[in-house]
Amino acid sequence: MTKDNPMNFLNNINKLIHEPARLMIMSYLVILGTTDFVFLLKQTELTKGNLSSHLSKLEEENYIKLEKVFQNKRPKTQINITELGMRQFHEYKNNIMNFLSIID
Fold first, then answer.
1. Sheet of strand 64-71: strand arrangement
2. For 35-79, how does the pLDDT look when each residue is reduced to its tens digit (9 = 90+)?
3. Gap between the Cα atoms of 68 and 58, Å rounded
4. How many CB atoms lie within 10 A of CB 10?
């Protein structure tokens, strides 16, 4: 990013994370490290299908890992952030902060 044209930032932003629903999902995972589908469903207020779609996109890029487990004989989808996902989120956060400091 250059001071000459701070809008160049928009060309380099991580668009996978920048989408509002995925930013919410990734933020929870950065803080918690791991959580389950039902928790994210309640916190994000997304529909099951919408949440599943966003999780699939994040999983395809190896930002998260989905794992099916059983708890009290009931299936549960566990969601874990990967090292890559953590690095990408922090890079995204730093880019946003740098951009905001330039346009301030």
1. 34-36, 74-81, 64-71
2. 999 999 999 999 999 999 999 999 999 999 999 988 888 889 999
3. 16
4. 11
